[in-house]
Design goal:
By secondary structure, this protein is mainly alpha-helical. The protein folds into two domains: about 100 residues, Winged helix-like DNA-binding domain superfamily/Winged helix DNA-binding domain (Arc Repressor Mutant, subunit A); about 160 residues, GntR ligand-binding domain-like (Four Helix Bundle (Hemerythrin (Met), subunit A)). It is about 70% helix and about 5% strand. The chain is built from eleven helices and two strands, in the order H-H-H-H-E-E-H-H-H-H-H-H-H. The protein has a two-stranded antiparallel ribbon with strand order 1-2. A hairpin with a 3-residue loop joins strand 1 and strand 2.
Length: about 270
């Protein structure tokens, strides 16, 4: 059975195999010593965190580290980290910290109650305003043509009375791409995922009654981007998001007053 520390490291997604976690822990332990670390000392250190290996097994793992250039043996005193080993340890620790932050961010974006949905939409508004400003400044002509195509699809969906959620969110996703800011794009994608996940459980959304309004607003925003007018694009996006947020707040209040839980209806998504 994998010890808790190895299981925890595997669950981060940074390491693919148990052996990778063992090697990481060994390198980390060796790096924490002031001098060379011997296999017996490392064996005892492992036992302190619930990992029990014989000294021969520890020795085999140490030879693997030697072969990778991460450690070097100092006579019978034990191992020291090489420069390459120190760099690998630093990289792995940074990757683990990134994984921890991603996990926390993902959990923070999960919608568990009505007020979470409102807060998410407010945050989305702030990001959307900046992405559309950047899009007007940075988008290529090909990207702008692609954005215009989504507007045409949106109009067709409205005319055919089809669910327009996908082309609506595609519009915002393409603008995030056009901003050429991958961090904003990543955050918005997580927000869209949470909104759509809840929407799939809801039968009636008030924002679905506003499609004929939203598509015109999308059209106006696209025109501002085509004209390379970042201030106007940002102004129009702010107005657009305010309208969505107003509808969200209205539906949330109605659902709260009716005493329904979140999964009983009322995620107002565009």
């Amino acid at each position: 059975m994998i010890a808790d520390e190895r299981k925890r490291l595997l669950q981060t997604g940074v390491f693919k195999k148990e052996i990778d976690t063992v090697l990481f822990l060994l390198v980390k332990l060796i790096g924490s010593k002031e001098g060379p670390a011997g296999s017996w000392t490392l064996k005892e250190d492992f036992e302190k965190i619930g990992i029990v290996y014989g000294s021969a097994t520890i020795g085999r793992y140490l030879k693997m580290l030697d072969s990778r250039g991460y450690t070097v043996q100092k006579g019978n005193q034990g191992r020291l980290l090489t420069g390459e080993g120190q760099e690998w340890l630093r990289t792995m620790e940074e990757n683990l910290e990134r994984a921890r932050i991603r996990k926390q961010s993902s959990e923070a974006l999960q919608i568990n109650q009505y007020s979470d949905l409102i807060d998410l939409m407010k945050a989305r508004k702030a990001i959307e305003i900046e992405t559309v400003r950047l899009a007007a400044e940075n988008a290529s002509e090909q990207e702008i043509r692609q954005l215009r195509k989504t507007i045409n699809v949106y109009y067709r969906y409205i005319a055919e009375k089809k669910d327009f959620v996908d082309p609506a969110l595609d519009f915002h996703s393409i603008i995030a791409d056009m901003s050429h800011n991958r961090f904003m794009k990543a955050i918005l994608e997580m927000m869209f995922f949470e909104e759509k996940k809840i929407e799939n459980t809801i039968t009636q959304l008030k924002t679905r009654e506003q499609g004929n309004i939203y598509v015109i607003e999308h059209d106006d925003i696209t025109t501002a981007i085509e004209e390379r007018n970042p201030d106007l694009a940002a102004e129009l996006m702010a107005k657009h998001m305010d309208g969505i947020l107003e509808t969200v707040i209205l539906q949330v209040r109605q659902m709260e007053e009716s005493g329904k839980s979140l999964d009983e209806g009322g995620n107002p998504n565009e």
